[in-house]
Amino acid sequence: MSPSRTTRPRKTPAARRTPAAGRTPAAGRAADPSPTTERTAGAAHRTDLLEAMVRIRRFEERCVELYSATKIRGFVHLYIGEEAVAVGVNEALTPEDAVVATYREHGHALARGLTCEAVMAEMYGRTTGCSGGRGGSMHLFDAGRRFYGGNAIVAGGLPLAAGLALADRMRADRRVTCCFFGDGAFAEGEFHETANLAALWRLPLLLVCENNLYAMGTALDRHEAQTDLAMRAASYGMVAWAVDGMDVEAVEQAARRAAEAVRAGAGPHFLELRTYRFRAHSLYDPDRYRGKAEIERWKDRDPITRLLDRMREDGEPADETLAGIERRVAAEIDHAVEAAEQAPEEPVEHLLHHVTSAAGEVS
């Protein structure tokens, strides 16, 4: 889709990508986000994109099974349907860039490169989890990969992302902080405060709105008078445009161009990625606020199916490729579940670790 304002981000040298778990990134180049028919990569790169999305989809489906079996407790927010967003955006980032996510962050974490084993152990609340078993589904964290966590508060990650970006600007580091958030964040003051300061201070911040049309159970047009979110973001003086969030290649092209402009000092950029979650808001949600016909219409735009269809059209062995990916991902997730089942729980006597400390000591 075309940018929401006439100001278009300038092209800069291509950025290195952060590989998702178990894959090697292919060489990239700058790309124009507008014509989705302009493909930036060949068959090998499409295979990488497909595998990253399938990994997220199958991981989430296994989480549903484990939740039903009471192996996983607490709130769980699934990313099924939105895989193209996390995968496409992370392809445009480097290992030195920072990522701040939402409470629906399993996909973000896996696309960033956290292993299925580390994320699954966290879902189980085991000490081998990426947050030591203390975060659970909504608080995945890995400082080594500059993945600064999920956040259970709507829009809560935005001020944190602004702080990370400000630190990079003050140190003159050519890094990008990417912050994911949903359309519901527009109803929170944190978004507007962050957008204003980011534009005012020209922070190296990439704001990624995952517009899945529902803020929990409230439709976008019932909580926002102006539903063109990219246009609203542009009112703060930043470059902003909307993208088909169900097309992983379109997402990558747009995110790469935006990230390169941010890294070059062009100030914050905003992407509205129009996507859809196929499952309810959370596994507690009865999902009575939208019709089945609407869900099925969006499933016709499944990002995995769309990429497979494009691969077939271009003569790539999509079905054979998918079969191999399914085998690898299944083995990876099976191993993650087995490892989580065997991993230790934190002993009760450690309850106050990282909470309180004795004088002169840090737990």
Annotate the secondary structure layout.
Blueprint (H helix, E strand, L loop, with lengths): L42 H26 L14 H9 L6 E3 L5 H7 L3 H9 L32 H15 L5 E6 L6 H13 L3 E7 L2 E2 L2 E2 H4 L5 H6 L4 E6 L3 H16 L5 E6 L17 H8 L3 H11 L4 H25 L21
Helix pairs in contact: 1-2, 1-3, 1-11, 1-12, 2-3, 2-9, 4-12, 5-6
Report what the structure shows.
- There is one protein chain.
- This protein is an alpha/beta fold and 363 residues long.
- 41% of the residues lie in helices and 9% in strands.
- A 5-stranded parallel beta sheet has the order 1-2-3-7-6, sandwiched between helices. Strands 4-5 form a two-stranded antiparallel ribbon.
- The longest helix is centred in the first third of the chain and has 26 residues, at 43-68.
- Residues 1-41 have low confidence and may be disordered.
